[in-house]
Structures are given as C-alpha cells and as structure tokens.
Amino acid sequence: MKKVWYKRLHWQIIIGLVLGLIWGLVASVGGFSDFTVDYIQPFGTIFINLLKLIAVPLILASLIVGVTSLNDIAKLSRMGGKTIGIYIVTTMLAITIGLTVVNVIQPGNFLPVETQEQLMSGYQENIEGADQSAQEVLDRSPMSFLVDIVPENFFQAASDNGNMLQVVFVALLMGIGLMQIPSEKSKSLINFFDSLNEVIIKIVDLIMKVAPYGVFALMAGVIVDLAGDDIGQALDLLGALFWYTFVVILGLFLHLMIVYSGLFKLFSKMKLRDFFKAIRPAMLLGFSTSSSAATLPVTMERVEKNVGVDEEVSSFVLPIGATINMDGTSLYQAVAAVFIAQALGMDLGIAQQITIVLTATLASIGAAGVPGAGIIMLVIVLQAIQVPVEGIALILGVDRILDMCRTAVNITGDAAVAVAVAHTEGLLGEMHFDDE
C-alpha cells in the first residue's frame, strides 16, 4: 500500500525546505531576522548535531561488523583499491566538466567592473586567514596524509568528526584483529558491535522523524544570513553573480547525469533514476546541512536499505568518501578559479588548466578535514595558477548557496561509488523503496 504523497519522507523534507525559504524571505522583509537567528536557527543546529553525534559510533560499529563478516583480508584490500581509484577518476572528471563549461560560457566576462570593485571591497576581509591555512596545507609533507590516518589516541580521534579516516582505520584494525582470534573469544565482542549498530540505525530512524523541522530551521537561517534585513541586497548580489552561479549548477548537473550514469553502465545495471529515487532524502539533507559528515548516517542507511549495497561495502566506502571524495567541491574549484581569472582579465592557457585539474584533485585529499576546506582548496588552486587570491572576494557572497549544491553532489558521488564497488564484489542486492 502506497503512502499518501505528503507522508513520504522526501516530500516532507522538500516541504520543510520551501517553508524555510518562505519564512526566511518574510523574516528579511518584515525585519525579524534576529528572532529567526535566536529562536529558529538553533533547532537546525540541534538537528545537525544529532546527526553528527551518531556518525562516529555508526562507522565504528558497522565497519567492525562488516569486516568480521567478510573474513577475508585480501578481499578487503582489493575493495580499498577500487574505492580510492574510482574516487580519483570521478573527481578528475568533475574538474574537467567544470573547466569545459566555464570556458564555453565564460561567466567572468559578464561581471561589470563596478560590480567587481564593490564585491572585492565588501568581502575582502572574509578571506583573511584562508591564505595562511592554505599555506599550512601546502607546507605539509607528501606523506602527511598517510600519517594523519593513524591516530595517537583513538578517543581523541573519535571526538572530532573531521577525523573520520582515523576512525575507519581503527575500526579496520579492530575488525582484522577479531578475525585473527578464535571465534569463541571474538563472538561476544562482535555481538556487542552488532547490537550497537542496530541501536544506532533505530536512532537514525528517530532523528529522521524530525528532519523536516530541522531542514525548515536550517533553510530559514541560510536565507536570513544571506539577506539580513535587506532582501533587495541579496537579490542584487544573485543578479550580479547569476552567470557564475548558473555555470556551477550546470556543471554539477552535467556531472550527475553523465559521470554517474556512465559509472552505472560500466559497473552495474542500476538506472540513474532509480538510484536518485532511493537516496533522495540523503541528497536533500546534504543540500540542507552543507555537511557530508552530518549526512553520513542517513546516507549509509539509504544506501544499505534502499539501494541494496551490502553493509561490508557501505561502511567502508562511504566514510572514506565523506572525507576525501569531493566531486562537487572540486568542480566548483575549477569553475571559481577560471571565473576569477576571467573577471580579473587574465587568460589561462592549457598548461594552467591542466594544473587546475591536478591541483584540485590533490587538494581534495590534502585539505580533507580542515575547517573551511572549500575556500582553502580554492586558495591552493589559485596560487598554483598564479591568480590573485584576493579574487575569492568576488564569489563569497553566493558561496553558501553553492556550498549546499556541491555537498549534495558530494554525497551522491559517495553513494554512486558504493554501488559500483558493491557490484564488482557481488555485494549489491535488490533495491527497495520504503517511501512508497
């Protein structure tokens, strides 16, 4: 029996998004933005915190259970190689698509000089500190990424959602250790983590019941932060950067339709439409929260229950993806870098654009887990092609909206790679749509 349309989770989240948008606009026009920030936006923050709260225990429990049920270290290493390989390829394709679209449309040429000067003066102070943070990332040794995966203290690593890879490493280590001891000694501990995993999944279900209200609060806060008490100023900003915003969104859409469709044709028989239908609550939450880590519990639940990916794969592929796979963010880096160069009257040659591909791919891994990683990654890319870092001020005004879009694509990419890896390992089951 099908649910009434408004009782389906994805429709409830969409309704929350729309009502949050309307409330934010009314609050800006009516002059009660402070009320929204003080009494409505906090509920959105609580919702995100609830999702982040269960991310680490979910990864730890599900991955330990998955590894021990796999009972094959060779298979685990093979799956890891596939995961990293596909992530790198899809990231490079995303950057290439972004460069293609931005070079064809050339949005930087539509930005008037007076608008450019106004944006530079208005947002200049917002990039202070990003240059220094980017330099710290560049100063790290080539092997520091691997060093950072191994924590000195597990409890310290588990206390920060930015250390997902460290939690994954500990879970893998513990899972492998449990495989090496007699089953009569490991059984009780495995059962504990199995029970913990089931409890966390139930908690995810409970949290999702308040998702529409959390999304409403988040969206209202986003609009108020963007517009303040002057909605006209926000509209003027969007108008000035319309072509830039359009190119980023177009590039993200093309990546969704071309790359992931091709991925499924190569590695599974799944239809892209069915895939989107199965994970749409996760995509909508990613859009609302602008956080892959916060959405991770929901992404894992939808990929396992609805898409049919075995827990052995999802618990390994998705946490890694939430940390290092940034298809949407990398595409945005490419478009933003070329847009800034165009607006400043600089022509980028083929060599510089190839540099963007390589730098953005490496930066997506090197800057993982760093606060404000998107802007820091962009600083690294601009420095590599010798474009003034101050040009970032041109795009900061609409960055919050585009951050929502690219996070949704990042999450979709994680789930798509999980499908591909699961199919190649024979661990992809039947799809199930529980919203029907």
The H-level CATH homologous superfamily, spelled out, is Sodium:dicarboxylate symporter
| Strand residue content | under 5%
CATH A-level architecture: Orthogonal Bundle
Q: Averaged pLDDT, please?
A: 85
User: How many DSSP helices?
Assistant: 20
End-to-end Cα distance: 8 Å
Largest sheet geometry: none
Which CATH top level class fits?
Answer: Mainly Alpha
SSE arrangement, N to C: HHHHHHHHHHHHHHHHHHHH
CATH topology: Proton glutamate symport protein
Gyration radius, rounded: 22 Å
Poorly predicted regions are: none
Describe the global form.
globular
Structurally, how many domains make up the residues?
Answer: 1
Number of E-type strands:
0
Helix content: over 70%
Alpha-beta content class: mainly alpha
Describe the structure.
It is found in: Cell membrane. InterPro entries: DAACS, Na-dicarboxylate_symporter, Na-dicarboxylate_symporter_CS, Na:dicarbo_symporter_sf. This is Dicarboxylate/amino acid:cation symporter. Pfam families: SDF. Keywords: Cell membrane, Glycoprotein, Membrane, Symport, Transmembrane, Transmembrane helix, Transport. The protein is an all-alpha fold and 436 residues long. The chain has one domain (10-424): Proton glutamate symport protein, CATH 1.10.3860. 78% of the residues lie in helices and 0% in strands. It is globular and about 75 Å long. The termini are close together.
